[in-house]
Design a protein that fits this description.
By secondary structure, the protein is of the alpha+beta class. It contains five helices and ten strands, in the order H-E-E-E-E-H-E-H-E-H-E-E-E-E-H. The structure holds copper (II) ion.
């Protein structure tokens, strides 16, 4: 009889331990990632409708931000295609996320050109540009870099731009808290974004 009682007590203890462990894992999984850089982003740009876009106004919902240019032959289409998949898998939750493509090529990427370009990927995707100084300020606020490269252009107008390829994830307070790449599995990305909603 005593042996049975000990067995029951041990089972109850094991159950409690497993229960707390599962609860802890559940909480850890739901918790949003802590900010990498707690500073909110601030810069004024122009969106693809030609309206002012204040990066500090992105607060209130999580955001995914990518820097590139519409003339980019591979890196930008690959990353924006991946971003579009993430938004598609998020489904209705994507309505609560800001997805922003900031052009580092203000010379060629007009709001009209950006509008046409982003619409090829996802209706939620917003294109942004600005003066060279505004774009430089926006990139600097993320630590993103870009540099014009004329090395492979047969025509000066066909220049390329080397640029950072991270997709920056901001939390609802505009703080950078994660980075996605074209190799980030879609379920990992969507889980991360949903934890920030
Ligand atoms: Cu690119």
């Amino acid at each position: 009889m005593r042996r049975n009682l000990v067995a029951v007590a041990l089972l109850a203890l094991a159950g409690a331990v497993v229960g707390s462990l599962l609860a802890w894992i559940g909480v850890a999984k739901r918790a949003p990632p802590p900010p990498i850089d707690p500073l909110p982003r601030t810069a004024i740009l122009i969106d693809h409708h030609g309206k002012p876009l204040d990066l500090s106004a992105l607060r209130g919902r999580p955001a995914i931000v990518f820097f590139g240019f519409t003339f980019c032959p591979d890196v930008c289409p690959t990353h924006l295609g991946h971003l579009a998949k993430i938004l598609t898998v998020l489904g209705p939750d994507a309505e609560r996320v800001t997805a922003l493509f900031i052009s580092v090529d203000p010379e060629r990427d007009t709001p009209e050109k950006l509008r046409e370009f982003v619409s090829c990927f996802h209706p939620r995707l917003i294109g942004a540009t600005g003066t060279p100084a505004q774009v430089a300020a926006a990139a600097k606020s993320f630590g993103a870099s870009y540099r014009r490269s004329d090395a492979v252009a047969p025509d000066p107008a066909w220049y390329l731009i080397d640029h950072s390829t991270q997709m920056y994830v901001l939390d609802r307070d505009g703080r950078w808290c994660a980075t996605l790449g074209a190799e980030t599995p879609i379920p990992v990305a969507t889980d991360l974004i949903r934890r920030l909603l």
